[in-house]
Write a structure and sequence with these properties.
heterodimer, A: about 100 residues, mainly alpha, Histone, subunit A, two-stranded antiparallel ribbon, 3 helices, B: about 500 residues, alpha/beta, Amidase signature (AS) enzymes, eleven-stranded mixed beta sheet, 16 helices, about 40% helix
Chain lengths: ~100, ~500
């Protein structure tokens, strides 16, 4: 298991698209360091012959017919939009 | 029964009055509204109320339906069409649900009336409801203490007779733990038993919806309405739904109850220990056989839980990007600034903390060491339970190692807060069902604080744990005790 000192909160925040203040970064560096240290106890467990549990109960592929059915109108889908125009979500410019 | 006393009723007793036409659904709703007005200033259980819409539904309510005319409070993480669904987060301020979650559709089909949304830890991340970005909810037994969490608003509302029953959700104990700390009944169904469609996702492989109620029978009544297969949710179990009230009242002779030594840990409050030991003896006197069992991987469950739950949360919360709904940062200079500031300004401290941890354990180079290893240990936790249930019908333990704690007591150290889930999160990892029922009180500073007894059952065995919990409850008086709230005392004084 990786060493807890590997955690670089500022870098991970970039991956998560989550701006943190300097204070938050410093606080999380310490607190999450403690949590990861606590999690190190998992290294004691022999998992060499264990399959990873993806689900608590066996659930297999669930399919449905590929058929259209009623769902939101465009107006309903836009009902909580921070900005909209002409039936579209308006976002900041992606390409110059 | 005067209007003032109506809110003290449990659902089953309320239904008898409604069906005998002693009261109308409109009168019930009005009595509840008055009660909330009188005491919610003290408790702050609710984030929003919509009595106008509810009154219209009460007018046409069919009281002969299973929950006909019964108002039910809803945790603010479940979409109720036309009502806010803030998850107690700034990032969803102003959001109004455009549709009903499946559980709400089912409650309505059973005649129940959703009328208000309850407070919670932001995005259900917490064990005290202190992480709500909107307000603190106080424990009705002692206003200086937390109601538990994350479904703290639902638990406090039921305890303070501000709700006949409520829906909560849990990922690691967020129904059972606040039920224990607030002195009500809380049921976590088997993973997949109740649809998650329309419930804002925290950790999708762990989340479940369940009832918080005054009695075990009420819990069964709500389960009858909300359990069942949903084709809109791929992890929904396609298994028949029994009548959860059918086994209630049958005696407990011959049941085998397991006592896991790993659940009798250092750090459990001595008064909690004493109450649990007394409950075990009591179960024994009702005819249940007590069997020692072992769940050897219990000590690893909290670590497994916080790796998996934060990993899943970091993925689920990626949808809050300011594009389609919710908060959006002003004047971003580019797209990265748009995402980074929207999320940085919109999420609270605990949510950010968990997104960082979850992103880290899933990131390249750490996935195998943390996430994959945790998934493997999760399988061992699941196997522990499977082995135990070969020997026993249910497991018995405290729900929480401690009674309700003071505001701020655990917020400084996240790890201490995370350990509040120590007896509850293993059941979420294993996908099994569990219930918390009141089993006594701790005396602290002149206040009586409730203690919860947890019963865990194997997957899809809700009917059996409800039967055992009901047998215990009905042979004790713990569930009859209700907190006396300051506002009530003051009103009473004024009348004198």
């Amino acid at each position: 298991m990786a060493k807890t000192s590997d955690l670089d909160v500022a870098y991970v925040a970039k991956l998560a698209r989550l701006n943190l203040s300097d204070g938050e970064t410093e606080l999380f560096q310490k607190q999450l360091g403690d949590v990861l240290k606590y999690a190190e106890k998992l290294r004691e467990v022999d998992v060499s012959n264990v399959d990873a549990a993806a689900h608590a109960l066996p659930i297999f592929n669930v399919f449905r017919e590929d058929a259209p059915r009623d769902w939101f109108t465009a107006q309903q889908a836009l009902s909580n939009a921070p900005r909209q125009a002409n039936g579209l979500f308006i976002v900041t410019k992606v390409l110059e | 029964m005067t209007g003032k006393d109506l809110p003290t009723l449990n659902i089953a007793d309320l239904q008898s009055l409604l069906r005998d036409r002693e009261v109308s659904p409109g009168e019930v709703l009005e009595a509840l509204r008055a009660r909330i007005q009188a005491v919610d200033g003290e408790i702050d259980a609710y984030l929003s109320l919509d009595f106008e819409a509810a009154a219209k539904e009460a007018e046409k309510a069919n009281v002969d339906l299973p929950l006909g005319g019964v108002p039910i409070a809803i945790k603010d993480i479940i979409n109720v069409a036309g009502q806010p669904c803030s998850c107690a987060s700034k990032i969803l301020r102003g959001y109004r649900a455009p549709y009903d979650a499946t559980v709400i559709r089912k409650l309505r089909a059973a005649g129940a009336i959703p009328f208000g949304k309850t407070n919670m830890d932001e995005f259900a991340m917490g064990s005290s409801t202190e992480n709500s970005a909107i307000k603190l909810t106080r424990n009705p037994w002692d206003l200086s203490r937390v109601p538990g969490g994350s479904s703290g608003g639902s638990a406090a509302a039921v305890a303070a007779n501000e709700a006949f029953g409520a829906l909560g959700t849990e990922t690691g104990g967020s129904i059972r733990q606040p039920a224990a700390l607030s002195g009500v009944v809380g049921l976590k169904p088997t993973y997949g038993r109740v649809s998650r469609f329309g419930v804002v996702a925290f950790a999708s492989s762990l989340d479940q919806v369940g009832p918080l109620t005054k009695t075990v029978r009420d819990s069964a009544l709500i389960m009858n309405a909300i359990a069942g297969h949903d084709r809109q949710e791929t992890t929904s179990l396609n298994e028949p739904v029994p009548d959860y009230t059918a086994q209630l009242g049958k005696d407990l002779r011959g049941f085998r109850l397991g006592l896991a030594k790993e659940y009798m840990i250092e750090g459990t409050d001595p008064q909690v220990k004493t109450a649990i030991n007394a409950a075990v003896k009591h179960m024994n006197s009702l005819g249940a056989e007590i069997v020692d069992v072992s769940l050897p991987h219990t000590d690893y469950a909290t670590a497994v839980y916080y790796i998996l739950a934060t990993a899943e949360a970091s993925a689920n919360l990626a949808r809050f990007d300011g594009v389609r709904y919710g908060y959006r940062a002003e004047n971003p200079k580019d797209l990265l600034d748009f995402y980074g500031r929207t999320r940085g300004e919109g999420f609270g401290l605990e949510v950010k903390r968990r997104i960082i941890l979850g992103t880290y354990v899933l990131s390249s180079g750490y996935y195998d060491a943390y996430y994959l290893r945790a998934q493997k240990v999760r399988e061992l936790v699941r196997q522990d339970f499977a082995k135990a249930f070969e020997k026993v019908d249910a497991l018995i333990s405290p729900t929480s190692p401690v009674p309700a704690f003071k505001f701020g007591e655990r917020t400084a150290d996240p790890l201490q807060m995370y350990l509040a889930d120590i007896f509850t999160s293993p059941a979420n990892l294993a996908g099994i069902c569990g219930i918390s029922v009141p089993c006594g009180f701790v005396e602290v500073d002149g206040h009586r604080l409730p203690i919860g007894l947890q019963l865990l059952g194997k997957a899809l065995d809700e009917a059996r744990i409800l039967q055992i919990a009901h047998g215990y409850e009905q042979s004790t008086d713990w569930h009859k005790a209700r907190p006396s709230i300051t506002a009530e005392k003051e009103t009473a004084k004024k009348k004198e």
